[in-house]
Amino acid sequence: MNICGYHGQFLIRGLFAKMIFSDPDFRIPRRHKASWFLEILTVWIVLVITEALLAAETQGSASPVQPCNGQGLGKPGSCRLQCRSDFENGSGVVEQLDQKQGRIWLRPTEHKDRGWPCWWFVHVTGIPPGQIITLEVIGGHGEYARPERAAFSLDGKTWQQTSPGQRSQDRIVYQQKIEAGEAYFAWGPPFRLSDAERLLAEATKKFPWVQKFELCRSKEGRSVPALRIAEPGLPESERFGVWVIARQHAWESGSSWVAWGLIDWLASEEPAAAELRKKASLTIVPIMDVDNVCRGAGGKEQKPQDHNRDWSAEPYWPEVQAVQSAIRQWDSQGRMDLFLDLHNPGRGDRQPFFFVPPEQLLREPGRRNLARFLEAARTEITQPIPLAPSPRTAGPKYDARWDRISKNWVSRHCRPHVVALCLETPWDTPHSTIDGYMSVGRSLGRTIARYFQQNPRSP
Ligand SMILES: [Zn+2]
User: Fold this and answer.
1) Span from the CA of 300 to the centroid of ligand 1 (angstroms)
2) Which tens digit of pLDDT belongs to each residue from 159-170?
3) Considering the entire predicted model, what is its pTM?
């Protein structure tokens, strides 16, 4: 809330100071000038105090681009209930706040041209421990902004789900008793750029055969981190080449947790993981659209097009350009075999499923390999929710821009044996938690290992 606004204040002050003290044409008696000045000063002070009180009551998002150093999380406030989103990946404008009832009316922050407003993530402070916080989420992009259960956390690291919210028309009301002075609430478990940096750095430190590198710099100059996993074994030319990307759509935080589950499994002591990392080179990019993740924007359908409609001859986004160029190089050297793009689907989708390229892009032995990969996935992806029995096709009937979708670009530009798919993991189920997503990621790892038990390059 901003009653007078800083610009207004400067204008009023400037005008009257000029009128009273410096303008030679402004001729009124000196005593009147002094009393006018005092009156204006009093009104201005009242306005500033009122504004400060209202601002303390209703805090929303601050600047549109947030720093990505992970230090931005709000500090616990006084005993007054406050709700803010001015930190990395934060989103949410407080429309109203009821101190006594502990009720917050929240709307996902709109970022012009930055995609669907469906992501929200706020920090609530000044909670009397034991109070029930009522969070009413309004608007956003259809029901995409309103999962049945919200995610909440007392420390910003460990996330749980609330019980199902009460849904009505354009809103949903979540209630959660908080046994602490502060809590975080979000659309789903957040996975920020700082999380990616930290987790990837930890993995690199732990295992000599894990290498963190910068994929590219984003449009806004951020470093886009990626990981390569390859344990010494076979020479590079004989290794299977795998590229996995996640989060082309910034709001789909679950897809980054699936990627992290995959990394966690690949680095594990499970014999299939140890065998796979000795015979393959796997590159994983846990967040593609880092700028919108930091901003807290949705990304989907952003301008001029979102990352997953940017796979053309001249991509707009540096991340797409970097992955394309690496895949072209790997393929030209004969070491590209598998591409996976990780997403979260529509709200109604309750089982993980794959999108596959349309028939017209498939050649042998790629068609056979795709069937074999899907068979391996049906065997391995059973927990916490089994894989849907059939894949879906992302062809002309799915989207007029089907030929600008990642896996279709890979299918079209790589050797015929290369398999390219998109995995959609549901976000609106009781299993859409960090554990649930990571479990899908581990199963995906076992799927890849099973698939490479046969050589996909054989004709
Ligand atoms: Zn998506």
Assistant:
1) 7
2) 999 999 999 999
3) 0.84
